[in-house]
Each structure stands twice: as structure tokens, then as C-alpha cells.
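S.,

Sequence below, as promised.
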Amino acid sequence: MGIACACVAVLLYANTLWHGYALDDFPTIYGNRLTMSGVKGIPTLLHTAYWYGFDGQNDWLYRPLSMVMFAVEWQLAPNTPALGHWINVLIYALSAVVLFRFLYELFDTFHIAVPLAVSLLWIAHPIHTEVVANINSRDELLAFLFSILTIRECVRHIKAPHKHQLMFAGCYFFLALLAKESAITLLAIVPLTLFVFTKADAARMGRVMVPIAIAAATYLAIRSSVLGSQLGGGAISLIDNSLVAAPDFAHREATAFYIAARYLALLFFPYPMSSDYSFRQIPVVGFGNPIALGSLILHVALGVFAVMRLSKKDPAGYGILFYLIGMSLVANVLFLTRSTMADRFLFMPSLGFCIVVVVVLARVFSVDVRSRAHDAAVSEPWLPSTPFAVLIGCVLVAYTLQTWARNPDWENDTTIFAADAAHSPNSARVHFLNGNHALQELKQGKVPERLQRQQYIMVLSEFQRAIALYPTYAEPHVGIGEAYTFGGDFPAAIDWYRRIVTRNPRYGVGHRLLGNAFFATQQYDSAIVHLKRSIAEDPSQADAYNAYALGLSYQAKGDREGARTYLEKAYALEPSLKK
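The prediction came back faster than expected:
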């Protein structure tokens, strides 16, 4: 059965195997200098933050396991996304095998149809497309795989103790944490699993938890020594998390429960899905909103029901708590995260959902009334209930079709941005990303001449839509200026950049772009003023290309001393500019 589950996993994602890079593959893979260094970058990857090789910031996230894999893959086959997609699908297939074997052992008194149905529903659920079809989400895949292996070893130790099981459990858990820090929720999920599915007393549970606690402490110590900040540099931005706009605690919590309702809706009806739910795709609401209030009541009721059923060791209650615990770190209820909402956050918690659905249906159709030992002893039909099998089968067909339909959206940046600009029509960021990617394609000559005008109009429209949704969002403002520049409309570009620096006089990037526009129109005095101002406002703008533009501006004015000063700086920073 495990092999059959793996085959289903591969079949579901076979149409992603030759996809390109998309979305956050850039900061983690083909735009990350450490990843692109191959195996030489691994030592630095092990003692720096997740995106350090991209933005130089050593804070917030520590997930070296997937980054090391990306570096090895780049060493073996540079700039070959197909390799990454094949590995993602194979890890997913391996996870399918491990999950079925784990559930088969866990539900050892249930008909085999129960663990099989749970496994297949989880494998086929379309909400997983972001994780499997996007190479960057390798962290989620690895965290899930090693988390399930951790729980499995802990349960096995209780049922048939061997010392090596605890050693493996600790190692697996440590690897899960190195993949993604959200695996820390196993500190609650492991004892919950042991309580519901074994007869272990507190002392035996405590012994099992020792290697788990050691692994957690080791990871947290390493993480603390590596990262300059545990929570990330600076405040959480509005574009990252819409809840920042909440006027008070009550509205923040109400919006969080509104989002929680949307997560549940996606589990039951996974459409539409999106890679981005940024400001203002999710509205800020109060508890006067019926969805927010209803979600609060529902989640509290589910939690109370699940806790009450613990004494009866009810698998349905277990599934509810598995889901709630898994969502606790990303739900924005206990604390704000750097994301409003994400499909990938449901990857592991969705297992709890699948357990609840199958257990409830199994009870309705009297599937779980026999022990597996009894089933093996008599000649029973393999399918214990035709209605149960038909219903699960229909859901699997629907999930499969939806997964196949969503996978092509993840082919590359062009497809995912275009699809999700429609799926998240009120997300300022996705409209900016769609417009910016289309602009870069124009700049790189990737658009046929007959379509360039149409795409240029689309670029401006997407930037304007982003600004309409979030008027102070700097990036689309800059994007419009860059579009005008690309189109050769320098007067419009200069006018637009002037508006930007008038609204925000300390915006270094705005001054630089305005200076470049003046340089392009041979207004060298104005170019020098704004290029220098960009450095004064933002020292990071003092790079080779800014110095080069200043040097050429002075040279055009006949100021040899000024030209020599800045051109020497430019050549020292970037020798290739001498050519």
C-alpha cells in the first residue's frame, strides 16, 4: 500500500517535473550567492540565516537543511530547476510511504481502509501544490517527513521498546527543526500522540521526550548563536501582514480568526488558491463580522470538544488538536508573524484535518468497529463499506483534478504571478510582482515586438492597481517610473520620480532613479545633485554604478577632477566598468 501511495504522489505532480524556477526560488536558489557557490558555500550556509546569501541579513530564520541541498544541487547541475522539481516530488513520494506506514501502525485496531484513506486524502489534497510544485518549499517537505519519522519512532518505542528508537527520534526531530522551525510543535504533538494511541504512563512518556527535548534545546542553542535577531530585523511591514493595520488588539484577533475560517474553507473547498494574500486581500475586521465571530466560536468549540474526548482517546479529537497545534505558530492569534496567510502553512496541519474527516466518515459507515486482527482472521471484503469507498473515491478524483489544474500555475514567475493576480485581486504585492516581472521581460527582450505595447500597458495597469490598493507602497511607484524610462518617456519618468521624492524626501532609491533620468536627458547638474542625495539618504546606494554615473556626469560637464574621483571609485568596486 505504501508503494501505491508513492505512485499516487508522483502521478499527481508529474506535470511539474520540468517546470522552471518561481517566486521565492530566486532568494533561496538562483539569486542566492551562497547557494550558487555550490558545496563551497555550505559552511557559511550552516552558520548564517536563511536568506543571508541573498540580502546579507543574519536574522529571523535559520533553515540550513534545504539550503545545503540547494547548494549541492547547484554544484551538480547549475541553474537546472528540473533537478529540484524531481527531488521535491521524490521526497513527497517518500513522505507518502512513510505516512501510510506510520498511520497503519498508529490505527492498529482500525480497518486498513482508514489509514489508507487518510494517507490518500492527504497526498491528493490540492492545498499542497505550493509546497510540492515550488522548489523553495523544500523546507516544508523535509520538516514534514522528519516530523512523521520522529512521531513514528516514539510510538514504536512505547509499543516495543528498543534504545535505538529514541536515538533515531532525537535525530529525526533535530533534522526536522533544521528544515523548518515550525517542527517545534512536536513538543506538544508527540506526547499527545502517545497519550491517545498507546497505554504509556507519564514516566514512560517522559523518557521518550528526553531525546526530543535534547534535540530542541540543541537546535535553539545553535539558532541563538547564529542569528543576530530571533524575530527578524525591524518591525513587521504592512505589505507582509495585513494585521499590522488593525487599530487594536480586538480587531487583530478578529481578523486572525477570520483568516482561520478561510483556512478551514480551503481545506474543504481548495479554490481559489494563491501564493500571496498580502495587504489588502484579507480585510481587517472586528468581531462584528459574522465570519470572524463564527470562527472564534467554532475554534473554541472544536478545542473544547477535542480536550473532552482525550479521556476516551478519540482519534477524531486527536486530529482536531493536531490541526490546532500545527496552526498555532502561523495563525497570528498568539503573536504576529511575517505573513498574513499562506497555503503552505496548511501542509502539515492538514493531516489532522484528513484524520478527522476519515474517522468521522468511518464511524458513519461503521468501518472502525472491527479490529484489524479480526479482519485478517476471516474472509472479509477488502472494502468494508461501499458508500465509504465511493465517497472517499469521489473526493480523491476531485482533489486530483484540482491539483492537476493548479500545478501549471507554478511553472514559472510569469504563470504564477498572472494566475494569482486573478486569484488574489486585492493583494497589492501580487499586482506589483506581476507588473514588475512583465517589465523585466520587456527589458530583457523576451516579449515579441507585436505584443510589447500590450504588455507595456499591462505593466502600468498592474502598478497602478497596486498603488490604488496601497497608496504608500514604494515599489510600484518606482516601477511606474522605470516603465516610463524603458518606454523612452523621460519627461514622464522625471515627473514621476519628482513626485516620489517630494512625498518622501529621504527615499534614497527615488533620488537615484531621478538622478539617472536626468543623466539620460543630459541634465548633468540635476543628475549630480540627486545621485549624491541618494547616497546621503541611503549609504547602500554608494555602489559602483552610482559612482560611475556621477563620474560620467562630471566628465560631461568638463570637470576632470570630479570625474576622476568617482570613476576611480567605480572601477575599484567593479573593474569590468573600465571596458
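Confidence is low (pLDDT under 50) at residues 373-381.

Coffee later?
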